[in-house]
Amino acid sequence: MRTISVDGQGLTPEAVAAAAAGGAKAALSREAEARVRESRNMVEELVAAGEIAYGVSTGFGKFSDVHISSHDTARLQINLIRSHACAVGNPLPADTVRAIMLLRANALAKGFSGIRPETLRLLIDCLNHDVLPVVPEQGSLGASGDLAPLSHVALVLMGEGEAFCRGERLPGAAALAKAGLRPIALQAKEGLALINGTQIMTAVGTLTYVKALRLARIADVIAALTLEGLRGIPDAFAEEVQLARPYPEQIGVARNLRALLRGSALTTRQGELRVQDAYSLRCLPQVHGATRQALDYARDKLSIEINAATDNPLLFLAEGKVVSGGNFHGQPIAFAMDLLKIGMSELANIAERRTERLVNPALSGGLPAFLSRDPGLGSGLMITQYVSASLVSENKVLAHPASVDSIPSSANQEDHVSMGTTSARHAAQVVANAAKVLAVELICAAEAAELRGADGLAPATRALYDRLRGAVKPVTEDRSLTGEIERVAAALLAGEWLGAVEAVAGPLY
């Protein structure tokens, strides 16, 4: 199994996704452990000297002006975790919790946080032994970081709270014991170091981005199959058209479409059946390309955030300084997730419009109404378009930017917050909905290809058609398609079929 070095600087979204899926172990690098130990020494020196430092010898938030005796610094951290662990809602999925733990460990490994090496190692050991804290999904404002949900992670390290271990939900102490691990007693600053950060929104956002990119890439293939089913015109994807408006992402999508449609006997030329296609076909490079721009922006911000120190205060060893700052503020990720969900909402929006063209006899160019083999007696795929329309409408509500809202907290000490975790959670819902919309389009496009003559498909789209037919048989008679839509959506999110297409078409953008 792959080992990921936790060093505070080398993580990628793909590595996070691998660890989240349980396909990698984490190991603290020697250099990082040395930095963490030096940082911890600085905290102990501050406590011994009785110096004032936020969260070490003071209360939290509005209580930052309340001095805490050195005799009470450990109790202060325990109280912090217990009081802040009040998140609500359904538990976050196992893959998300693994990502959260890896990202928090990576931030602490930078050596700015003052945690003890043994506390950090316990966090990594829990990840590697699959002791996964029960983390409710709601309750973060996204500034002072993700305090409430991250506190549920820290509770388990203390032997409190709840955790899943080998599929069983247990009290925190029992879960640790089952894995052969011992709880720790928090010391000065450690509770704050564990919870003051953006790891909930960043974990949700990173896994959402990875899935969104898979969907964006397979969406080009599905759209190409739809274009064949509608006898569409690939001329609009010509390279010279894209170079006249040289967005790299638009150029990349058009290049994909040309490769995917190479060898098709079902496409037409300008003027053969019609002069030009509707926008949902003709503007594929422009719309899908713009979504890729949004995803590129999200990746850039996530790549910085997963290797950032996002707690407060930060300890700077070379300067001998403890600085109260604002790196916990989730605004960069809030904006990135809001942009991602808008981009993915539009990817689903245009896919639903293509589905409508496939099932609407007034728009499909001779296909039977709703792709029914017995129109009237059989409804065919009529209601699948209803389902897509419902999901697209839901996405339009979810795409409202959470980052434009802020509610002051802690008696107005924390008077502007990001709502970044809400942005990330909504983005995850948008992506899940988009997968189902694309699954519906793929099922309808395959049915159209069946009716047109699948032998005329391009080799690349035929590869996707064949994979789809392994999961969804032709709809020759009316049947419930719920399970098939869900299974296809899951396959698209996992990126299961893209490799078969690229084996024929070559690497896709």
The low-pLDDT segments are none
Based on Cα principal axes, name the global outline: elongated
Indicate the percent of residues in helices.
Answer: 55-70%
What is the radius of gyration computed over CA atoms, rounded to a whole number of angstroms?
A: 26 Å
Total helices: the number is 19
End-to-end Cα distance: 28 Å
Modified residues (2,3-didehydroalanine (Ser)): 144
Subcellular location: Cytoplasm
Main location: cytoplasm
EC number: 4.3.1.3
Q: What can you see in these coordinates?
A:
The chain is mostly helical. The chain folds into two domains: 2-197, Fumarase C, Chain B, domain 1 (Orthogonal Bundle); 205-404 and 418-505, Fumarase C, Chain A, domain 2 (Up-down Bundle), CATH 1.20.200.10. Helices cover 55% and strands 7% of the residues. It is built from 19 helices and nine strands. The chain has helices spanning 13-20, 30-49, 73-84, 94-108, 117-128, 147-157, 172-178, 190-195, 199-229, 239-243, 248-261, 279-282, 284-305, 331-359, 382-398, 420-452, 459-471, 482-494, 498-505; strands spanning 2-6, 24-28, 88-91, 131-133, 136-138, 162-165, 168-171, 314-316, 321-323. The strands form four sheets. Strands 4-6-7 form a three-stranded antiparallel β-sheet. Strand 6 (162-165) and strand 7 (168-171) form a beta hairpin. It is elongated, with a radius of gyration of 26 Å.
Short account of what is shown:
By secondary structure, the protein is mainly alpha-helical.
